[in-house]
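Box 3.1 — From sequence to structure: Elongation factor P
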Amino acid sequence: MASTSDIKNGLCIKYNNDIYKIIEFLHVKPGKGPAFVRTKLRSLSNGKVLDNTFSAGHKIEEVRVENHKFQYLYPEGDDFHFMNTETFEQISLNKNILDSPDLLKEGETVMVSINTETDLPLSVDMPSSVILEVTYAEPGIKGNTATNATKSATVETGASVNVPLFINEGDKIKIDTTTGSYMERVKE
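Predicted structure (token representation):
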């Protein structure tokens, strides 16, 4: 059993007969009254996000997980196929378990959290950013880099990303996987 002082991002806990992963947390010590921990939990079974407040010292049931590197192979309907990079064992996961499946490129390496009690995959942690090639974008106009205007561009995985006006087809861009937003243009 763990307590609220052990809460950190990425911790998996049992709560309300389900397994949740902590996305965000904040320890709050108000001037009046007892301290508490405000958390944002994501259900690993259905992907729903839940806001919850635990009082300080509240006991929480931790789920033991192991993280393994898996390589993304290919999509098949709503399922995504991955291969363990050490044992070459293949698994298929539903796209609800993924944070941003539209930014996942074939061959990308991700971390998969596996429940040690049941050997079932719980969640997939994407890399913090991915580099993708722009396959479609309206032509850029020279000199439009001073403003913060953006346009929509389609990347090689089919995702749509807002990019600055100077980005053209064929450019490689770095995308933040947590927000799905443009970070920078990558030079080769």
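Summary of the box: The mean pLDDT is 86.
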